[in-house]
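Q: Okay, next protein. This is Omega-6 fatty acid desaturase (Delta-12 desaturase) from Polynucleobacter sphagniphilus. I've checked the sequence twice, so it should be correct. Can you predict the 3D structure?
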Amino acid sequence: MANDWLWLLVYRREYLTNLCIQPVILKDVVDVAPLGLDSELPHRKIIRSWLEPMTQSQTTRAVALLIFDAMLWVGLIASTVIVGNVFFKIILGMIAGFVTGRIFILGHDACHHSFTPHRGLNKILGRIAFLPSLTPFSLWDVGHNVVHHGQTNLKGFDFVWEPLSKEEYEALSPARKLLEKIYRSGFGPGIYYFIEIWWKREFFPNSKNMPAKRPIFLKDNLLVSGFAIIWIGLLVIAAVATQQSIIVSIVAGFLVPFLFWNFMIGFVVYVHHTHTKVAWYDKKSEWLRAQPFVSTTVHLTFPLGWGHLMHQIMEHTAHHVDASIPLYTLKSAQNKLEEILPGRIISQRFTFKWYIETAKRCKLYDFENKAWLDFNGYETAKSAVVQLKSIQESKPILGTIQANA
């Protein structure tokens, strides 16, 4: 059975393509001539109007995606018990962690209400999709939709991979400096996400990290906690019934998938907004004039269809321009944006060399000079130059920010 599930995930790519990737039929796609770099960037409402035909969501398709991924996840978790070899148990647990990420992406769309046309149904499907990752729906909504999307790359507001200044770093304790070095080592995205996002801000957060208190926050935390208890309990029952080690069953069937998921999502959010060309801002007036929904996101492309397997979550510029675009039309929207705005969108092909170099350069940030620094405070890269106009004038002109690496 384990081999069957592994085969489904890896080799049935043509089936996944038909189910997840083929774009819906788009009507009345706006035909806009490409804008040169000397042209002013239009208002966000105008840019969103170009993508409006791609905001069509489909209930049947959304439900089918969730059912497929959920069945795949359940089968992989069950396989960690059925398979006897510990090594293959761990491998299956890691694949289950990857599928946890796929299901989470569906919940992410539901939280943006782009998954189906029905808000009530989106809330139900989103909470279901967030269960394998133990993500409280309402708290993710506040941290992601309200804070991150509302204030992307604005220091003091957007806390997701917010870089420290040299002065802030030097003021840290030795232990906290070490943790920051681990976070930004290139190997620490999972540790960062687990501690700074999930533990501090989502899983029963304290008043410091979540000052607002709403009954739904507690209910959603109780929901994911109850799911975790049932999940672990079923693994224990299965281990006893099959006379296997309870510890091994919990590690392979619960801990490994959850840890893999944390590293997956930590990596994803890191590369979405960390790039030598991406700028951060500590002044809101400057941030507003920089059209941050275009200039602070990275479109990361992958070989061998990995972007497709991740439900197109890397088509990230289009998502920040209009979060109502469902994942199954996101690629078309991203292509449209890059067609109309050539040279203005950071597009980067993933390689391990690029990733290691980015992690090496992007340690601290000089907000005044818009430059990335190393931990010694030496400049390692200038962010993309964004020409800001006065607040009374029209919209800003962005310089070229196409990545060459």
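A: Here is a summary of the prediction. Residues 2-398 form one domain. The beta strands are 298-301, 346-349, 364-366, 371-373, 379-382, 386-387, 397-398.
Q: Noted. On to the next one.
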